[in-house]
Design a protein that fits this description.
Layout (H helix, E strand, L loop, with lengths): L5 E10 L2 E11 L4 E5 L6 H8 L7 E6 L2 E2 L5 H7 L1 E4 L11 H5 L6 E2 L2 E2 L1 H14 L15 H13 L5 E5 L7 H16 L3 E5 L3 H7 L2 E6 L2 E7 L5 H9 L17 E9 L6 E6 L3 E5 L6 H9 L6 E6 L2 E3 L4 H6 L2 E4 L3 H5 L6 H6 L3 H4 E2 L2 E2 L1 H14 L16 H14 L4 E5 L7 H16 L3 E5 L3 H7 L2 E6 L2 E7 L5 H8 L9 E3 L3
Parallel strand pairs: 3-10, 3-11, 6-9, 9-10, 15-22, 15-23, 18-21, 21-22
Antiparallel strand pairs: 1-2, 1-4, 4-5, 7-8, 11-12, 13-14, 13-16, 16-17, 19-20, 23-24, 24-25
Helix pairs in contact: 14-15
Length: about 500
């Protein structure tokens, strides 16, 4: 039998009062795609950091190719051939795609950086991913989905023996995931061992050979993927059975609250739609279709060339996020770590940040009122934190998302825009977010949801607007929405189909 390329024996990582990892074991073989699953807080990210040397183990041993790794650190791990793609991108926004891919490894010519060769290499590599990304483009100008593909390209370029992929598909649409899977299969054929972490369990059965389950920092079991199923994995992950992935669509469509007319930017073309009280309106499309750009333009984060935003029948002027907030619009962005939450601040400070003006009295923040307000929403949303003073960066993804949501609920927003609401969130926390969204619309709040997860869109949204290359390509009512119908519209196919209308006739 082939010897493992990586082995962890009784590895523990302790923090004051917390056992992040408790006597776990893990085996990884060359050419194997090994899934690691578990709820947020199960220990997956901690395991990655011990393997890559980002943190020291408290107890236990890590072996690479049969040899124990002494005093591991990121440089040593990379020299051995261990690399990773984290959920938090490690890119330099002001630099180009090619410069990010080959940062620290620029090709040289006569003692100088050989830029021509570097850009050619980057272009060839990106073509392998099946995505057209300009290697000369600055990373800061790319969407989150394209930034993720740059991260993947950077890792693939290092000729690694072990590649750890932490939620690699989270910002990708089905189309981009197809190319991601092609790359994974190519690496597998080349003998690269891959640790694949994903909350999208359907991916595990699509791409992985083996699956290991962690729960509460402990090793639970390892199984061949072909010998398990989604329900069994969920049971092992959460130690309980989850019923009904999506709440019943018992929404009652009310009055027209938001109307967008002929919105245009340098990319968007004549965007017009309506959103109603008591409904969840979904936005679908491939990466780069313009979904996020629509929401940023409505929210005042991006400049509009023309177009009207009408709230309750009255045209409003929104030139900045502050204007949008005054109008009762809240935006929960797709990148909650960079744009939604203040990671190095407390739960209390995050919840009340946008509400600070109301907390001032004689130039002083009313601390008691602040604590009371934050505590109310911590309880309402069941935010799991040791206290209101706990730093948001230490919370699980699901609880971070709840903190961002609490901020807008405290502001009494009547329109909430969720951009990828469950990205990087485990199955249990997803159900909590769905239940919260369901409760909000029942209370008359308008929810607009962008999602790259097709089952999520079909399971939650009452209507789905589909975008293609900066335009609305069609609209689907819930009873006519199928994966095929959405994908055809997202791909720009303009054939007539029963149950939906195409805007691009």
């Amino acid at each position: 039998m082939t010897e493992p390329i990586l082995e962890l024996k009784n590895v523990s990582k302790y923090y004051p009062g917390v056992k992040a990892l408790d006597q776990v074991k893990f085996l990884l073989y060359p050419g194997e795609v090994h899934a690691l699953v578990g709820e947020n807080g199960a220990g997956k990210s901690t395991l990655i950091k011990t393997i890559t040397g980002a943190i020291d183990v408290t107890l236990g041993e890590i072996f690479f190719a049969g040899e124990i790794i002494e005093k591991n650190n990121p440089v040593k791990a990379l020299e051995l051939g261990i690399g990773s793609i984290y959920q938090e991108f490690n890119l330099i926004p002001k630099m180009t795609v090619a410069e990010n891919i080959y940062m620290g490894r620029f090709p040289q010519k006569k003692g100088m950086v050989d830029y021509k060769t570097m850009y050619q290499m980057a272009g060839s590599l990106l073509n392998e991913l099946g995505v057209s990304i300009n290697p000369y483009a600055k990373v800061e100008n790319l969407t989150v989905g394209y930034q993720q593909l740059v991260e993947i390209a950077k890792s693939v370029s290092k000729n690694l023996k072990v590649l750890i992929m932490d939620e690699p598909s989270a910002p990708l649409t089905n189309n981009e995931m197809t190319y991601l899977f092609k790359i994974v299969r190519k690496l597998k054929r080349d003998g690269v061992a891959i640790i694949y972490i994903s909350h999208r369990l359907e991916e595990i059965f699509e791409i992985c050979d083996t699956v290991t389950v962690f729960r509460d920092g402990k090793y639970i079991d390892t199984l061949p993927v072909c010998e398990t199923n989604k329900d069994d994995l969920i049971m092992m992950m959460v130690n309980r059975k989850l019923e009904n992935s999506y709440p019943a669509k018992d929404y009652k469509k009310g009055k027209n609250v938001l109307e967008v007319k002929n919105l245009n930017t340098t990319f968007l073309k004549d965007i017009s739609f309506q959103a109603y009280e008591g409904e969840i309106l979904g936005f679908a499309g491939l990466v780069g279709a313009g979904r996020t750009e629509v929401m940023r333009a409505i929210f005042g984060a991006d400049k509009r060339k023309s177009g009207d935003v009408i709230l309750d029948g009255v045209s409003v002027e929104i030139k900045s996020p502050a204007d949008a907030i005054r109008c009762g619009i809240g935006l929960i962005p797709e990148d909650r770590k960079q744009q939604g939450a203040l990671l190095h601040m407390s739960v209390k400070e995050n919840i009340t940040y946008a509400y600070l003006r109301s907390l001032f009295k004689s130039g002083i923040i009313h601390k008691n009122i602040e604590k009371e307000a934050a505590g109310e929403y911590q309880e309402k949303l069941q935010i799991k934190a040791a206290s209101l003073n706990q730093l948001v960066k230490t919370l699980s993804g699901g609880n971070q998302q709840k903190v961002v949501l609490a901020k807008w609920l405290l502001m009494n927003c009547k329109i909430l825009i969720f951009d990828e609401p469950t990205r990087g969130i485990d199955v249990g926390a997803k159900q909590e977010i769905y239940a919260l969204m369901n409760e909000l619309v029942k209370n008359g709040i308008v929810i607009i949801m962008i999602s790259s997860e097709m089952p999520e869109l079909l399971g939650i949204a009452q209507r789905i607007i589909v975008m293609h290359e900066g335009e609305i390509s069609g609209e689907l009512e819930s009873n006519a929405a199928t994966q095929e119908a959405v994908l055809k519209l997202a791909s720009g196919i303009k054939e007539d189909m029963h149950g939906y209308r195409s805007e691009k006739q």
